[in-house]
Amino acid sequence: MKKLAARDFEQILQCAMPVFEGLLPEPYNSLILDLIFELSMWHAFAKLSLHTDTTLSKFQAVTVSLGKAMRAFVSRVCPFFDTKELPRETQSRQRRKAASAQNVPGGRAAPSEDDSSPKIKSFNVNTIKYHRLGDYVRMVRQTGTSDNSNTQTVAAEVRRQAVLDRIHRGIPVSSTRRRTRATPTTKTRRRHDIRVQFEEDQPLSATVFTDHHHMSIEQRYPQDIGEFLHANAGDPACKVCTCWSHRAAI
Prior knowledge:
The chain is mainly α and 250 residues long.
């Protein structure tokens, strides 16, 4: 979960609900699932490339619902769980403190017991990002949709211009690279085979029949959930996932 971009968290949010379902007892389970659903709904409205008065009104209502779900999470879930630093975070903090102590005149400071023990990490909503969530609807009305200032759009255009510049100067560009960068929609139209080949190794331990789901830790075969739902739109097995996806995209 380190060095992730915003698009990575976007993909995590899309498939987080079935992963978190049943991890904690009630009432924490329902509160967390409600929060994830509200976050997904809010994100779907925020990513729309075309808004109307109706969608903006719904966007405002979803923002209010998200605030209520977030406050419920802070007041009814967070106080009952003691969250602390990860071991690597504690070690990193100790290294930073030791490095800063060496630069101070007078020598190296003696380590204390508090330095070796992990610190309490509480959930903090007093951040500018959370504070600005309520301004999105107003900003969309004033300046347009969020894709106007999205860095993904700029990055895609920069890559496209780089490929066109290479073509203009006569520098060979591979057909695969040219196809995927100049026309990125071809990737979404291609149907993927999600089956793992027999000769490939994807270890999976024995599954307990009472478990809600069982996933392999192997990450060599990623599958985009949006492409999967689009490619299997008529499959009855995807009916539940498709319904949830439509609810999050309304």
